[in-house]
Amino acid sequence: MTATKSSRRPRVIDGVATPGPAESVIKGIILTLACAVVVLPFVGVFSTSVASPEQVIKAGGFVLFPTGIDFTAYRMIFSGGVVTRALGVTAFITIIGTTISLVLTATLGWALSRRGSFANRPLLLLVLISLLFGPGIIPSYLVVERLGLLDTLWALIIPTSVSAFNVVVVRAFFVQLPQEILDSATVDGAGELQLFLRIALPLSKPVFAVIGLFYGVGYWNAFFNALLYLSDASKWPLQMVLRTYVVQDTQLGGQDLGIDTASLPPQTSLQMAILVVSIVPVLIVYPFLQRHFAKGMLTGAVKG
């Protein structure tokens, strides 16, 4: 009895209790089930997009294990029609928008982190207030209209180019930079611009990797501003196409795909292919920046 009771006690390694074999097995099963619940829908979406038309029709629209691989749906959506055009628009918005957002966030965060800079306190107060109060849809629309940005791609970039939360994180990161390094550079004759470009930015790669991912994913997934500000369907980003042809289940015809053929794959295959195209770029970029997440976010948020 004594041996049995002692074997059930958790092992203690370096003062930390570790779970026994039974607990480890239960946790492994739970994690496996949780991963399956998350991964299986993605597998089903990709499998349906590459399954043969006959199998998709027979399965009623959702295939988990395709018997064959058929990339006809991808060839159709990349044939030069609405999906290809929307993908180019989204790539433009994401690249240009993320670049502009990073430049504005970095410069504003640096200015707010420098005590004694012009209007430091009032600007910081405005940034903090904007975290609590949003502008509203109608005022935002009126501003975009007065600026002449309606039905232009800049309407999808400029209104969301600066995030107050990201500015606060970047400012907190700059505040934590060792003051000794900045003072030494100042003694050596470095000006404010040189401090920013040669010292602050190189030391801020982790936080800007995270902030850049936030901005990039935001631009890539944005559709509401396009719904408000764009009336020309030729300027739709990919998420608007996704909303129209997948969420609202609008039929994709040959004229939409830029092809002259009546033999199209099932609509479900085309919809799942569009969904995969909208997801894959983020899945590719995220692993390269994942290692910066903990360091960038925690370092930028521990102190204010």
Structural features, described:
Helices cover 68% and strands 2% of the residues. With 304 residues, it is mostly helical. The chain folds into two domains: 2-70, no CATH class; 79-301, MetI-like fold, CATH 1.10.3720.10. The chain is globular and about 75 Å long.
Question: Keyphrases for this structure?
Answer:
single chain; about 0% strand; mainly alpha; about 300 residues; disordered C terminus; two-stranded antiparallel sheet; about 70% helix; 2 strands; 16 helices; MetI-like fold
Give the helices and strands, then pairings.
Layout: H1 2-8, E1 11-13, E2 16-18, H2 21-50, H3 53-59, H4 72-77, H5 82-113, H6 120-132, H7 137-146, H8 164-175, H9 179-187, H10 192-203, H11 205-221, H12 224-229, H13 238-247, H14 254-257, H15 267-289, H16 293-301
Antiparallel strand pairs: 1-2
What is the CATH T-level topology of the largest domain? Answer: MetI-like fold
- The number of helical elements comes to 16
Biggest sheet statistics: 2 strands, antiparallel
What count of domains describes the coordinates?
2
CATH superfamily of the largest domain: MetI-like
Membrane topology: Multi-pass membrane protein
Pfam family, one: BPD_transp_1
Subcellular location: Cell membrane
Protein name: ABC transporter permease
